Amino acid sequence: MTHIRSAPFVLALVVVISIDSALVLSGEKVEFTPVADFLKVPADVTLGKCSAVAFDSKGQLYLFHRGKKPILCFDATGKFLRSWGDELLHTPHGLRIDRHDNIWTTDIGHHLVLKFNVQGKLLLALGTSDKPGDGRDQFNKPTDIAFGAQDEVYISDGYVNTRVMQFNQQGKFIKAWGKKGDGPGEFDLPHAICVDSKQRVLVGDRENERIQVFDGEGKFLAAWKGFAPYGIEIDRDGHIFVADAVAHQVLQLDDDGKIVHRLGERGAGPGQFNVPHMLACDAAGNLFVAEIDGLRLQKFKRK
């Protein structure tokens, strides 16, 4: 009987230890080593401004850039696999991949959010092409996409509308929040968006130099200040990485938004940055950073 009574306590203890371990991990400093020339870019492609990078469940890397063949797909070793998008995309900005391996992109030229499968077939288009606006079916230079645990789709809309819009996977509008300003829940260029393991929605409020934290319904929870968040990524262990293009650095934050570590400085060498824009981590915890003015993607191997 003693063992039976203690079982729930043991289970609860294990759960608490697991949660506490995750919180400790999120605050641990992560070290990286630059890996040079890992991408085998096709000979007929010259990388333009590299705006985003993401990984699918098979470890395939998708690079979004402003040039010929705007979506480039590579295997885990950097070998080129396929590309698409010339006829559909005007000015690439954000690219994210949901848990179903759908690839979502934001286009600040056509004012669209597009959803593709991994082979490049267009599955869904949100927005009205070349007709920017603030309606439920319009964007004005949308910047980034994030996904909730129940397949909610959050879009930061962006350069002009200064709001977050929420849809379901089929593109049905759910709600929107935010307006121009510097108060809680107000934005000055919501440039990046990400959802953490607590289902908090992290919005990179770029020109206000902060990340604002919301619950899944848009309720304001906190503001993390002191950097210009162009891109946000959360790795397998809950570490939060921010591309600060003003400082030309990648920052590591803890679970409360405090800076744990700074990576890089301005420059063109390995481990240096020239306007780091958006970033991603693979399943092994390696970090990949897309640079706008550097015209490249950098890989950082996790130590």
Can you describe what's shown?
Helix content is 9%, strand content 43%. The protein has 303 residues and is mainly β. The chain has a single domain, classed as Neuraminidase. The strands form six sheets. A four-stranded antiparallel beta sheet has the order 1-24-23-22, with no helix packed on it. Strands 2-3-4-5 form a four-stranded antiparallel beta sheet, with no helix packed on it. Strands 6-7-8-9 form a four-stranded antiparallel beta sheet, with no helix packed on it. A hairpin with a 5-residue loop joins strand 11 and strand 12. 41% of the residues are buried. The model is unreliable at 1-24 (pLDDT under 50).
Provide key terms for this protein.
1 helix, globular, Neuraminidase, four-stranded antiparallel sheet, 43% strand, disordered N terminus, mainly beta, 303 residues
Instruction: State the major sheet.
Output: 4 strands, antiparallel
What is the SS-derived class? Answer: mainly beta
Q: What is the CATH T-level topology?
A: Neuraminidase
Strand order of the largest sheet: 1-24-23-22
Radius of gyration: 19 Å
Determine the number of helices (DSSP H or I, runs of at least 4 residues).
Answer: 1
End-to-end separation: 47 Å
CATH class: Mainly Beta
Estimate the helix proportion, in percent: under 10%
Summarize the structure.
The chain is mainly beta and 303 residues long.
Architecture blueprint of SSEs:
Elements (H helix, E strand, L loop, with lengths): L1 H26 L4 E4 L13 E7 L5 E6 L4 E4 L5 E5 L7 E6 L5 E5 L4 E5 L5 E5 L15 E6 L5 E5 L5 E5 L5 E5 L12 E6 L5 E5 L4 E5 L5 E6 L3 E6 L5 E5 L4 E5 L5 E5 L12 E6 L5 E5 L4 E7 L1
